[in-house]
């Protein structure tokens, strides 16, 4: 039986009515990938307020690796609600906070003893990681990468690359943040080709030390192991070993932002493990709790303990219900072997997507690691002109036909796969059928005279 069951056109009348209320009551700055209002969800399937059932390939922007309402996660939250909901760890501590820290200390890659702080969001994790790195090194400068996304708070925005919609109008940003090109081979900033480039992009940071900011002034380099909002860009194998070695040579703290890549998404608990990235600090959030707000920073104990008592923390940070959810999520990932499942899902997607790339000019690149996969859409494979309008049309076709997707990329021309890793084989196939139909619908409307998509 199909998981997609449409009773109305999408958006349906109830979703449309709620959108009118939303427009009147909620600020316009909050965006929506779809105009669909959810009523309930389970696993990889959502039901909207009009009774339509849709397959979810967006996963709450990567927060649902263990699926909507994973039973053991929901049970853990319920048990905590029967005990207490909030005391603030800063006033009355509780065991579950410690237990989550112990688990993350054991799981996060890196040598030597580790410690962890729990926070509320991914952006807050980034803010704290930068604070900790500056406190430890007694340096001020931060280096991030073009096409990166680290969050919407001010320091996180300063490290973020994309101007619209994230940064424009919010200037000025914190000083001493410098940006260098990422290993975006499909759109190389140096007009080179891999492997003949010898990963010039990684070694270029040495030039940055000579021409932009001195190495002895740099507290940290922060990087997403695979770009998230930047378009799921996966670097060559040599990139991170080279970057890691340079940071170690100059005493620079290397921060891996695993907010979107973490918790089995890439076929390992953390993407660092698969990419040769040796981080000093790791930031996390999203799928850490299966849907509740919580983030974390885990790293080398001597770095994490640089700030004094009272310099870190927050009223709601490490909420007890979120802590219990996190412990349950980590248990589900292990018991259901979701790392292996991510690799199976990714391979299935790539095989199908390779056929789309061969068939249509629209599909310029297929890339990713594990289940973190993406399609970059272009108007011409020769020029690689971004097909942003066409990407919007693909996404719209998908939700109108029962598949929730989400876009990405500095040019808004990437369809990214953030499917719950617990999705059934029949559901992933059905979702890819819709996506294939969407690509055909857009790609085959190209005007033969102008060469442009209609």
User: Uncertain segments of ≥5 residues (pLDDT<50)?
Assistant: none
Query: How much helix is in the residues?
Result: 25-40%
Helix run count: 14
- The global form is globular
Give structural notes.
The relative contact order is 0.16. The chain has 2 domains: 156 residues, Aspartate Aminotransferase, domain 1 (Alpha-Beta Complex), CATH 3.90.1150; 263 residues, Aspartate Aminotransferase, domain 2 (3-Layer(aba) Sandwich). With 454 residues, it is α/β, with parallel strands linked by helices.
Please render the helix and strand layout as text:
Layout: H1 13-25, E1 38-42, E2 45-48, E3 53-56, H2 59-62, H3 71-81, H4 95-107, E4 114-119, H5 122-137, E5 141-145, H6 154-159, E6 177-180, H7 200-211, E7 218-223, H8 239-249, E8 253-257, H9 272-275, E9 281-284, E10 295-300, H10 301-304, H11 320-335, H12 338-359, E11 363-369, E12 372-377, H13 388-400, E13 403-404, E14 406-408, E15 414-417, H14 425-443
Parallel strand pairs: 3-13, 5-6, 5-7, 7-8, 8-9
Antiparallel strand pairs: 1-2, 2-3, 4-10, 9-10, 11-12, 12-15, 14-15
